[in-house]
Fold:
Amino acid sequence: MDGSLREISAPGRVADPHEGISASELALATRNHGLPLEALHYDLTPPGLHYVLVHYDIPVLDADAWRLTLGGLVRSRLTLDLADLRALPAVTHRVTMECAGNGRARLQPRPVSQPWLVEAVGTAEWTGVPLRVLLDEAGIAPGAVEAVFTGADHGVERGVEQDYRRSLPLDVARGTRPEVLVAYAMNGAPLPPQHGHPVRLVVPGWYGMAHVKWLRDITLVDTPFTGFQQAVSYRYRQTPDEPGEPVDTIAPRALMIPPGFPDFMSRTRVVRPGPVRLAGRAWSGRGPVTRVEVSVDGGAFWTEAELVRETAHPWAWSGWHATWEATPGLRHLTVRATDAEGNTQPLTEPWNRGGFGNNLVQRVEVLCAPEGT
Amino acid sequence: MDGSLREISAPGRVADPHEGISASELALATRNHGLPLEALHYDLTPPGLHYVLVHYDIPVLDADAWRLTLGGLVRSRLTLDLADLRALPAVTHRVTMECAGNGRARLQPRPVSQPWLVEAVGTAEWTGVPLRVLLDEAGIAPGAVEAVFTGADHGVERGVEQDYRRSLPLDVARGTRPEVLVAYAMNGAPLPPQHGHPVRLVVPGWYGMAHVKWLRDITLVDTPFTGFQQAVSYRYRQTPDEPGEPVDTIAPRALMIPPGFPDFMSRTRVVRPGPVRLAGRAWSGRGPVTRVEVSVDGGAFWTEAELVRETAHPWAWSGWHATWEATPGLRHLTVRATDAEGNTQPLTEPWNRGGFGNNLVQRVEVLCAPEGT
Structure:
């Protein structure tokens, strides 16, 4: 007991082989939440069903008092209020957002952090100003290589006290594919508190950690940012000491609306014999999804599903559906997506120490039982 | 493997003494979610932050096609659509709703079900038609003793396939304190899917299981209802075989907005030395909250907080606040509410087999550390 933050803020760890979910992982799971998978039904996820991951506390911010500063290596420093932002030409993008830690709790051994299974995803229409427009207005000074984004959320993580802060290379920050947004509306309404009210960054195609919520400052810098959320967390690593590779764009994933109805506790599904419609969504931040396949025998045999590409919304999930002729017995359904770059989903877990970018296929256990059994 | 539902739907159980949270409890925790405790700040909880507990799947219902039937022991059977319901005189009540299982995951041994810590609560303004008005319109036939409410959600629980169904005694169903609502709006907007769209029951002062979501039928019956959610689940029991007592109104509870800022993983809080404002909410379904006390030494010494009674909203939580002169060290904060009936919160767990009505005091671990440590 030396009174330092390290007393209450431990290094990252991996659970013991048979260790159940711990009290601290549960405390994260009861605050943050995923998409109930039946809500894959909606093209646009209602805000209360969209996944939420908040590192520290949800700040309580007054939209009237909010200011965004844009400084560092710029020709003229900017300070904008919400009216200034709304006065600029707005664009809207439909974006499927996914937590980089989605799938973590299925890993063996399990990295101890937010314990997602497969449900940390959602799709919304975000309205705001392209970041490029703000950068052009400020003017980029010579030598700038990255933009660093600071949120209003503050906490401690593995002994490091910090505001939540992430960077993007300038070519991404200024890019058009994707077009990065400084967003003030979600599905046509002001951002809800948990989604970044009043303003957040949206980086279509990237995992959620890049979409800095409660955005309050953008600073251009002349060397790559090495803050906690960039250089310590959100790296693909096998061991704690290697530098690892940065987590960035979303790996392909397909999810299925679990068919039939569930058992409350096991979440196993029940369907009746006969034709059963299987449907869901598929997405990738690395290229358009070009193929979705389903298997009803745990991955031994696959058939191609019908894909409904949303060409008007290149950063949003696509729909897919297939018909399954269900026969009595316990079945193991699964689905996998492949994108135009040839990226697909593995059938065995792609382990890494942070539990990031795990796009192992979903598995849905279904009992096909005649009525009345 | 006999193909019956019992294969995938086990009896209720209590975890082994050192058993961590299981995969099926986690699957419930990633779908259902609590109130992030900093959102106790809001008088009215934004819908996406209000706790949600869904037994089966969230039904996808078309508001235009929705009908409510009122039958059984009535003089004239009613069928109402949403326009019929909206044409009747509307009332609005501000209601604090809490899951009966709140606190379950803190019990030793732990009943295996939705693993709530303390956060399964929220407050909203619900608008709808008093149930009494609909019952008067249908006319109650002689012999009716209870009203049975059926939701559109369907699933299996401990081997029993069912629509979600609960009853109320007629005197409660027709009562004015509380006034039971057939509600179609939450905070002035149509109900979100997860809160019962398009119509739900609201029973102010009762735990959440009574507020039947996706309400589609009300049937008056001449004997007390013995369906699963009434006679099997939601009973206070010490052993699996006793009939137990029914779970009904909400026991008093106070919660604190965790002060300072958190560590991401442990959720332990950090504050600076000096005066720290402590604030939160307190409620009881059994009478107005009359006293809130806080302790900063784990419950050895208590001081009374200032209570801000919302007399205009007798079914909603009250605010409270106090000032804590924080000195360096690891502190254990707690708070307890007492209502006008003398009900209060225990300092040791009130165990029961279902993990219901557990209003053990909240405990918040706070490190008071000078800046820069």
